[in-house]
Structures are given as structure tokens and as C-alpha cells.
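Moderator note: this is an archived Q&A kept for reference. The question asked for a predicted structure of one protein chain; the sequence and the answer are reproduced below.
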Amino acid sequence: MRNAKWFIMLIVCMLVIVTGCSSTPKADNNSSSSQATGSNKQAAKTLKDVKVVLDWTPNTNHTGLYVAKDQGYYKEEGLNVEIVQPGSGGADAMVASGEAQFGISYQESVTQGRTQGVPLVSIAAIIQHNTSGFAAPADRGIKSPKDFEGKKYGGWGSPVEEAMLKTLVEENGGDYSKVKYINMGDADYFTAVKRDIDFAWIYYAWTGIEAEQRNQPLNMLYVKDYDKALDYYTPILVTSEKVIAQDPELVKAFMRATSKGYQYAIQNPEKAADILIKAVPDLNAELVKASQKWLSPRYQDDAARWGEQKKEVWQNFSDWLYKRKLLDKPLDVDKAFTNDYLPAGK
């Protein structure tokens, strides 16, 4: 569409020039054309450059961002948004340092970071309820956390991950010492369960849907089903205290457009999937479409509006972490998240 508009403008300018060569002066028309062109250039210059960094490679957790960019919602708010993948330090570090104004993170990460002085603030819950859990191929016979005994778990060494695994095993009558821990590194889940492990922690919306497509049945143990405190927000949209203090209008504008992007994805999962595929053509198109269909109704779920966060969710999970000595001190929950920059619900 942009190319078409510029082509039309070029034709108009050529006609003006040709007309200007005739015996009848057209100075007023030339002046108007110049002013219009100047106005368009000025409008382009006034767009504010904004960077949002993903937590991982692009997937359906991020669809609303790509929709907002593709549909022009960010431009309507005066923003030129660039969506980038994280550097070696991760998304949190890029946002905290000011390298990006916004990023994708997780409640556990922000909770731990804030108790250590990292000034990140969650401004929206991308998915209303935790869709992650421990998954195993059905033939491994893992139907409850007690069945983790004697099995090989593939993880990445996070203290939160180990605490969650240990708690679920012990609270369901199992012996955590009988679970063998294997660091998966960058291994793909499907490769790892064939080669090294029996189960791993996944997001069902992506890896679980891929398992369905591969016709590889899973037993999925969602962590939220075993403890209310584990129904925390993951992933979330974050910014820094500095951005909020210095440019609150930027945060409001970004969230207005982003909210529209996710609302579009909620209402139009197929079209939203096509937008993500167009933006990231290397993705498996069938996986994206199936994942989007599963995830779209779960973005907002039972919340009054997309992105809404509850204090009790932040409090319950931070208390859970503190009780297990995974936080240096209790979290000041009121400073960790805000709903102030979400557009008003309908």
C-alpha cells in the first residue's frame, strides 16, 4: 500500500510539472503540491522510534505486537516500532538499561529482579492464566507429579524451576531425590525426549500444539492446577521505571496500540496468524495457525480487559518464592506492576 501511494503521488507531481510547462501559469498548484509533500515528510519525521524486545524467537505469544505494527496501530499513535530479538543479556537487561523501551518478560523474572534492584515494571499480562506445565510423551506413564520419581527431567538450571519441580513432587507424595535432572541446553524438546529425557517444562500453546501436529500424545501437567500461587502471569509486557517517569504518554500510546493488536488477535485468530507468518516467514505456518486458534481465547480469558493484572496474583506468587528462600526480601507488589497504562475496558 505504501508503494502504491508513493506511485500515485509521483504521477500527480509529474502532471503538475507538465501542466506547469503550458502557457497558463499554475504557480498555486505547484505551491500546494510542495506543501503537501512537505507535510507528508514532516509527518514521517514526527514518528517516535520505539524498540520492543522479545523474550525468545517470534511465536504466538507475540502476535499482538506484529498485528499492531502491520495494521498501523502504532503509526496511528505516532510510533515507529521495531520488534527485535533479545541479545545475550536477555530482554530484561535491554529494557532495564534503556536499550529498548519495552520488552517481553515473565512474572518470576520481574519479581526476582525487583528484589535485587532491577527497576522493571509489568504493564500488561499477555496471557491471563499460566499455560505452562510439565509435559511428557504419553508412553512414559507420567500422570501426576509423583510419577516424576525415577524419571529424567530436562531443564535449564533455574532456581525457580527446580523449586517448582521439587514442591510439586513432594506435595504429591513423591521423593524429589529420585528425579534425575539433566540440563537440556538448547536442545529441542522433541529431540530431547527421544534421546535424553522423559519430561520437560513447556508452554502448551507452542510445544504442546506441535506435539498434536506430530501425532505425539502428551501428558500435560499444568502447574496452575497444583497450586493457586502458580497461576502467575507469563509472559508479560514490561518497561522501566525511567520510561514511565520520563514519558508516561509514550507508555499510554504504546499500550493503546498493543491492546488493539491483541484484541484483533482475539477476534481474528486466522488473520492474526497470517500477519505473524508474513512478518516471520521462517515459522511453520500450520503450527502458527493451530497455536493461534488455541491461544487467542486465552489472551484475555476471564479478565475484564486484555492485559489486566491482579494484585493477589503478584502477591501469591512472590510469597511462594519468598517462603522457599528464592527472594532476598519480600516483593513490594504495588511497584512491580500497574494497570494504569491499559486503555479503559469496553
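Archived answer notes: Residues 1-43 have pLDDT under 50 and may be disordered.
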